[in-house]
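Changelog-linked ticket: D-ribose example.
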Amino acid sequence: MKVAIACDHAAFRLKEAIRAHLEEQGVSYRDFGIYDAGEKRDYPYASLYACRAIQSGECELGIVLCGTGVGVSMAANKMPGIRAACCGDSFSAQYTRAHNNANVLCMGERVIGEGLACQLVDLFLATPFEGGRHARRVAQIEALEKGELE
Ligand code: RB5
């Protein structure tokens, strides 16, 4: 399993902390930047680059970061096939995988500390989708995306 990670300029430090954590855990990832604390990037581009890798099948899951986590999640959720969840607590990070089959975890560097963020990453990556009745609801999201939900 390969994880796409990306951030805007408001979340470079958090992205680097998560990248180091993934290294420690032996999780395979591709870093879509930014690559330097001085670099500037508007948050929709962080979503675009990481989520494209999910759409293409290169990566299975993504972690996309900005100041709040909200901007990157809004942008990511405009992309077909992407189910992005902005999380700041462990229950949400776990259950958005289990029940929503979320494929992108969004967090905000200005909202949560690095320790909690890494814990949410671990939960998100370790939790499988439960399927069953939840699969019906995720299918409804997909129909909504196509304008086919009646
Ligand atoms: C950038 O200053 C900030 O607006 C952005 O990182 C994010 O918080 C938007 O949702």
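Closing comment: Example verified and attached. The mean pLDDT is 98. Residues 8, 10, 43, 66-68, 70-71 surround D-ribose (CB under 6 Å).
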